[in-house]
Specification:
Layout lengths: L1 H10 L4 H23 L1 H9 L17 H19 L1 H28 L2 H21 L2 H5 L3 H43 L1 H22 L2 H24 L1 H6 L3 H27 L1 H25 L7 H42 L20 E12 L2 E12 L3 E6 L5 H6 L9 E6 L2 E2 L5 H5 L2 E5 L9 H5 L8 H10 L3 H5 L18 H15 L3 E5 L7 H15 L3 E5 L11 E6 L2 E6 L1 H7 L2 H10 L1
Parallel strand pairs: 3-8, 3-9, 6-7, 7-8
Antiparallel strand pairs: 1-2, 1-4, 4-5, 9-10
């Protein structure tokens, strides 16, 4: 339970008033319930004529004791019988009982209703915190995680927290109050019987806890299997074209069935263990009632009975009422471990370390004025596998530097270091002479625009995709950016123009159209530094020509670092750097590199062929 209270302490602080309201309302509910059951004593006495005692009123003086309370209560009832008759008195007591029940159930409902904002609020807060954490994590975190697993933690695990932990919160507030109030009433009625009852309850609690010991571990296994299922689904949706092309539907069906079946077996173990909660608690509760009934009956049948028969029936009614919150407690003891297992998985995201650290005293960054410089940069994703080795490179303002080389030579990694998607392990990158790690990440990235090989668009309108990241962009500004990117004409051919929804990842557009939208987005941001990561390599010749015209306009007034496989697109670059196995092996202009008759010449000859 310590883990549960730690979770509650983390997320429930903004909702203290709802917790206080629930406590007060549950307290009233318990008190009204006890008083409504107390009316059973005179009702039974009237029905079965069990009490012939003549009661005299004892004046109220100070704090009344048990005898005075019971005496005066019976006195008022006997006066009611004498005045109105037994039948009418019974009707009046029944009406009072009904009124008490209305008050009890009203408070019970209100105590649950007041918890709804807390439950829904905490779940919203957890989802928001996880989402915000995901946005703040570096790119390196996602390269080590399955996307399907992250989605499973965001959806299935957070839902499990809501169902298992937050839903149990109401029970964990309500039931202790009911149990304390009911046991207080039991002690007040007969401490001997209650002392005996208390010796039975721990055995019942032990029986419940013995079943639930392994539930958390089993739940953790089930949630991991669910993550595998979601990862399989994500891979299938992402690779559907390849699956169909290689006629691999049956293979994927078998893989998914095996994954889903593993989840079924894991969740079945959890469900069976959880399903045992109710019958076991019912059995143990019945055994407790039977034992107390035997002991209490023995006391009443003795010569010196501590309570009379009608009071004993009232006692048993309250005792049976204790069973309901005890059973709810047992239910919570099964639900909470499932939720805590999910909370552990969510916390792996929440507690993930962000190695892209903000400087304590960030340097002011007012613009880009001189150059970007790599100084002896080393980088590796995994220890022992070096991706970049001793990179030294200057990118002067207003110049275009192109990076070429075979796949895996480190080109994309090199440009990813500039906006600090990753940090260098050795050496440094400076902007106008200042290490980029001394700037705020937000300020640094505000100077940089990206156009990638795969145009990353969102399921939104064309307008919102172009204006993405630029606050308060006007339609005129968006249209101007689209015209420079050679996108305005095809946008206007759409029925809804700039308000056209482009579908998931721009699926309603062609590859060239998506790329031009991406270029228009970079133009609207108007960054002084532009990174082009093979922006035309996935396009056909006609689309490439149109997109290249847009890129030429975009790069003409900016500092550009371009990664290219097609050497024809970077022939006019101010400097071309050839990377091989993480090192710059050649650098110079197009003609100079051809004259060297080295790696670049080989690449150029292969493309010419």
């Amino acid at each position: 339970m310590k883990a549960f209270w730690r979770v509650l302490k983390r997320f429930a602080a903004p909702y203290r008033k709802y917790l206080a309201g629930s406590v007060v309302l549950n307290l009233f509910s318990a008190v009204f319930n006890i008083f409504s059951f107390a009316l059973l004593i005179p009702i039974l006495n009237i029905l079965f004529k069990m009490d012939s005692t003549v009661y005299e009123f004892i004046p109220w003086d100070g704090v009344p004791d048990k005898e005075q309370l019971m005496n005066n209560f019976y006195y008022y009832v006997s006066q009611m019988i004498d005045r109105f008759g037994g039948s009418t008195a019974l009707l009046l007591l029944g009406l009072i009982f009904a009124g008490m029940t209305v008050l009890k159930t009203g408070c019970y409902f209100a105590s649950s209703a007041v918890m709804v904002p807390l439950r829904t609020g905490i779940v919203r807060d957890i989802r928001t915190m996880v989402y915000n954490k995901l946005l703040s994590l570096p790119m390196g975190f996602f390269s080590k995680q399955k996307k399907g697993d992250i989605i499973a933690r965001m959806s299935g695990d957070v839902t499990e927290i809501e169902v298992s932990i937050i839903s149990s919160l109401d029970m964990l507030i309500k039931n202790p109050i009911l149990i304390i109030c009911y046991f207080s009433a039991l002690i007040y009625l007969s401490w001997e019987l209650t002392l005996f009852t208390v010796t039975v309850v721990p055995a019942m609690a032990w029986g419940m806890s013995a079943i639930g010991k392994k539930l958390k571990r089993k739940s953790l296994e089930a949630q991991e299997k669910w993550s595998d299922t979601m990862a399989q689904l994500d891979e299938t949706l992402g690779g559907l074209r390849v699956i169909k092309a290689f006629i691999a539907e049956d293979k994927m069906k078998e893989r998914f069935f095996n994954t889903a079946d593993q989840y079924r077996r894991a969740s079945a173990k959890v469900a069976v263990r959880q399903a045992s909660a109710h019958p076991v608690s019912e059995l143990l509760g019945s055994i407790m009632i039977m034992i107390v009934l035997w002991f209490g009956g023995t006391l009443i049948l003795s010569d010196h009975a501590p309570i009379d028969a009608s009071t004993f029936i009232f006692y048993m009614t309250i005792l049976y009422s204790v069973l309901a919150p005890l059973k709810e407690f047992s239910k919570a003891s099964y639900n909470i471990p499932k939720g805590l297992a999910s909370m552990e998985r969510v916390d792996k995201i929440m507690n993930a370390e962000n190695d892209i650290r903000e400087p304590e005293n960030p340097a002011a960054l007012k613009g880009f004025n001189d150059r970007i410089e790599f100084k002896g940069v080393f980088f590796s994703y995994e220890e022992g596998k070096e991706i970049l080795h001793d990179i030294s490179l200057e990118v002067p303002k207003g110049k275009t530097v192109a990076l070429v080389g075979q796949s895996g030579s480190g080109k994309s990694t090199l440009v990813d270091l500039i906006p600090r998607y990753y940090d260098v392990q050795k050496g440094c990158i400076t902007l106008d002479g200042t290490d980029i790690r001394n700037f705020r990440v937000k300020d640094l990235r505000s100077l940089i625009g990206n156009v990638n090989q795969e145009a990353i668009l969102f399921n939104d309108t064309i307008f919102n995709n172009i204006a993405f990241g630029v606050e308060d962009a006007t339609m005129e500004e968006v249209i101007a950016a689209a015209k420079i990117a050679n996108a305005h004409d095809f946008i206007m051919e759409k029925e809804e123009g700039y308000m056209t929804n482009i579908g998931d990842r721009g699926s309603k557009l062609s590859g060239g159209q998506r790329q031009r939208i991406s270029i228009a987005r970079a133009i609207l941001k108007n960054p002084p530094v532009l990174i082009l990561d093979e922006a035309t390599s996935a396009l056909d010749t006609e689309s490439e020509k149109i997109v290249q015209e847009a890129l030429d306009r975009l790069t003409s007034t900016r500092t550009t670092i371009a990664i290219a496989h097609r050497l024809s697109t970077i022939r006019n670059a101010d400097m071309i750097c050839v990377l091989h196995e993480g090192k710059i092996v050649e650098r110079g202009r197009h003609e100079e590199l051809l004259a060297l008759d080295g790696y670049y010449k080989k690449l150029n000859d292969m493309q010419a062929l």
